[in-house]
Design a protein that fits this description.
- By secondary structure, the chain is mainly β.
- It has a single domain (7-37, 49-127), classed as Nucleic acid-binding proteins (OB fold (Dihydrolipoamide Acetyltransferase, E2P)).
- Helices cover 7% and strands 47% of the residues.
- Strands 1-3-4-6-5 form a five-stranded mixed barrel.
- It is globular, with a radius of gyration of 17 Å.
- The two termini are 31 Å apart.
Length: 143
């Protein structure tokens, strides 16, 4: 049976991306994106919840994220879920689920957040095994 592992997230960066180089020389960026949900409960009280999503971006896209994304900036991310496992210093198994991005789209103008940069500009297509989909226009996003 076929399966699908595809995630779409649009939200705001909680901090500037952290960009590092692997020992093999490949760039990797990590950042967190907040999505917000609001509703009215049975008592008529307005409720809100923020969900945080850890994003990992590789290669040239990682470098672009480090250059143009800043805390508060709105981004649209397309990718897949991946869970990593490791043992901490006490020997306890730890798990982290993150979104490995294939595509990152800057949303809104450069005035958003604390950084400047490209307005509504997609990052270049990644190299390697993951090809980026065709960029979508703001009018195509259903939310």
């Amino acid at each position: 049976m076929a399966s699908l592992n595809k995630v779409f997230v649009m939200g705001n960066l909680g901090a500037d991306p952290e960009v590092k180089m692997t020992p093999s020389g490949q760039s990797v960026a990590n950042f967190n994106v907040a999505t917000n949900e609001s509703w009215t409960d049975k008592a008529g009280t307005r409720q809100e919840r923020t969900e945080w999503h850890r994003i990992v971006v590789w290669g040239r896209q990682a470098e672009q994220c480090g250059q143009y994304l800043r805390k508060g900036r709105t981004v649209f991310v397309e990718g897949r879920l991946q869970t990593r496992q490791w043992e901490d210093q006490n020997g306890q198994k730890r798990y982290m689920t993150e979104i490995v991005a294939n595509f990152v789209q800057f949303v809104g103008g450069a005035g958003q957040g604390t950084g400047g940069g490209m307005e509504d500009a997609p990052l270049p297509e990644p190299t390697g095994r993951d090809a980026a989909p065709t960029p979508i226009a703001d009018d195509d996003v259903p939310f």
